Amino acid sequence: MTGGAIGWWIVPLAVLGSAVRVSTPFLFVSLGECITEKSGRINLGLEGTLVMGAMSGYAVSYLSGSPWLGVLMAGAVGVVMGLLHGTICSLQRVNDIAVGIALMLFGVGLADYLGKPLIQPAAPQLPSINFAWWSSSPEVQNALKINELFLIGMALAPLLLWAFRATRWGLVLCIVGESADAARALGYPVIAVRILATCAGGFLAGIGGSFLSLYYPGAWSERISSGQGITAVALVIFARWNPKLCFYAALLFGGAGALGPTLQSVGVHGGYYLLNAAPYILTLLIMIITCSPKRTLVGAPAELSITK
Amino acid sequence: MVEETAAAIPAQRGGIVRRLHTIAARTAAEAVLVPLGALVVSLLLFGLFIAFAGVNPLAAYGYMAKGSVGSWFSVQNTLTRAAPLILTGLCTALPAQVGLMIIGGEGAFVIGGLFAAMAGVALLDASPLVAFLAMAAAGIAAGGTWVAFAGALRHWRGVNETISSLLLNYIAIAILNQLVEGPFRDPRSLNKPSSPSIGYDHMIGTIPGTEIHWGLVIGIVVCVLAYVLIRHTTIGFAARVTGGNLRAARMVGLPIGKLVMLTCFLGGAAAGLAGMIEIAAVQERASADLVTGYGYTGILVAFLARHNPLALIPVAVLLGGIGASGGLLQRHLGLPDAATVVLQGIIFVAILASEAVYGRIPWFKGAEASA
Questions:
Q1: Can you tell me whether residue A128 is helix, strand or coil?
Q2: Does the beta carbon of B361 lie under 8 angstroms from any beta carbon of chain A?
Q3: Quick check: helix, strand or coil at residue A132?
Q4: CB contact, 8 Å: A117 with chain B?
Q5: What pLDDT does residue A297 have?
Q6: CA pair distance A265, A260, nearest whole angstrom
Q7: Contact B170 A102 (CB under 8 A)
């Protein structure tokens, strides 16, 4: 380090850079959860999907040498996890929140189990695009290196919003989420739509997981995600089931998550653990502020168990 | 004629009573046999799973039996692991009575253990009984308040309790780490930051003749008390009405807010007490080791027991046994230590899926079968 002077100047830029990095898994999980919740189901198991995605993506990237193949594999594993959740929830009297908790524990345990041999080897990482060609400062370079997955997620958010509003698929999804009876009366297969929506959600959450192991923090470890998946589920509520707002909310949460490591990198060590808990505290505060026992939330799919 | 009718009534009544008994017995059988069936299916799936890794499932089952009940040593290991699970199971089972799905047992366990350790360190010079009571009170109050917070948010702000209680777990762990690395750190703990000791004399011992600490007895007593509260008091009845039909509970004017707060507090208190016992019987000082995972396994315990406080005890022993057998599976078959977590996950999923079976098997209905 060349001293504290540049260090302090760089803090806002570094926080922004790391916010982009940290927010990517939040973004993918929340977009995925948004699709699932639009269909009237909630999948709390995305935490498990995220970790499974991180593990499988890393494994495939290591074995095949192609990180993008790893991303696809993570998505595929996410689809399988989504299929599991969607199918079990379609049984009678089965509670989707409880199944989510079960799959969260199952996914984390399974990833630990299968990921044991992956702790040592280094897998090829995802590429990033450098937006700091104008600067020679390594800090600026570091802050403005933006991963391609983030850009994909950024494009996906408005695309999803458009799809929800203007495409046949999106409208069917919303009908199923608003009123299963109405959807049934119109002849749409409610259960099939919900299972597909959960699979799609799993796909995106799995990709979010692959970002964790293939870019930032960029290695597989057992504690790679501590609650990012569940925070992202809460984030969807905060974003009012609007994919575009999910994007901004993910950035906000990413910024909160980046605060601790960034301050530590410029030499502020006090309150390290509490700062790392900032995303959870922020989530809790936001939920306290935005929720209300009296009215249902604006934009909430009416079939959603969590808001009933 | 009159006599005939008079004689017929008791006979008929006896028939109805007998039939009601049959129905009750078969419903009870259903409540036991369906989860047992799910358990067997889970074990088979787990066997299939490890068979893919080239491990002989039969050998694994053998080691699991050996590691959980095969010797006096393993029985003690199983029971020692069951002790905290009984209490953390209550953290999910009690709020479930009013229809809440709380998964904050881990956080209540950690925060309860942390505050108990603080009380213990502050009372180093007090008599063991005073220190014990103060630590228990600290653990209960801290854990109870922690989960009651999630309950209050649910009731007054409409915040989903599952998400908030899970977030509180992470916050509790952050507070623990922050304190034992900072103000509550024993300067002598160099490599692994931990709090000062609560004093070896103030630790609670083991049940005479065994290596099992008194936490097991405390857990069982608390479970029985919880069962009495839920099944044999008006408060428990009101709570179950609230959980069964919220609108009906509102119509008859039940104090829903109080019931939510009470069950959440008691659930959190149980988990906090488990954390206190972990400090006072096992760890002696607070450190990152307090994050044991007992809180998460407790969720599974509660669901397996269908939130019945008495059923928590055998279920906790069962899961304690699975945990205890992990060591043998690792040593003899080379399975990763996460194998038992995978098995727990499979059991959890299977048990939830088995909900769909209830009422589907004609024999359990009894009435139709005997008619």
A1: strand
A2: no
A3: coil
A4: no
A5: 74
A6: 9
A7: no
- Give residue-wise pLDDT tens across range B232-282: 999 999 999 999 999 999 999 999 999 999 999 999 999 999 999 999 999
List all residues 6 or more positions away from B38 whose beta carbon is below 8 Å from its beta carbon. B347, B350, B351, B353, B354
Q: Is the pLDDT of residue B221 over 90?
A: yes
- Among B355, B357, B361, pick the best mutation site for testing chain A contact (most A Cβ within 10 A): B355
Low-confidence ranges of chain A (pLDDT < 70): 1-8, 295-296, 306-308
Q: Do A88 and B349 touch (CB under 8 A)?
A: yes
Packing angle between helix A228-238 and helix B161-181, nearest 10 degrees? Answer: 130
Phi, psi of B159 (to 5 degrees): -80, 130
- The shortest C-alpha distance from A190 to chain B (Å) reads 18
Closest CA to B30 of B22, B42, B18: B22
Give per-residue pLDDT as tens, B115-131.
Answer: 999 999 999 999 999 99
Q: Which of residues 214-233 of A touch B (CB under 8 A)?
A: 226-227, 230-231, 233
- What are the tokens at A163? 């799809």
In terms of CA atoms, which chain A residue is nearest residue B339? A113
Per the CB < 8 Å rule, is A109 touching B336? no
- Nearest chain B Cα to A278, which residue? B171
- In this complex, how many residue pairs, one in chain A and one in chain B, have their CB atoms less than 8 Å apart? 140
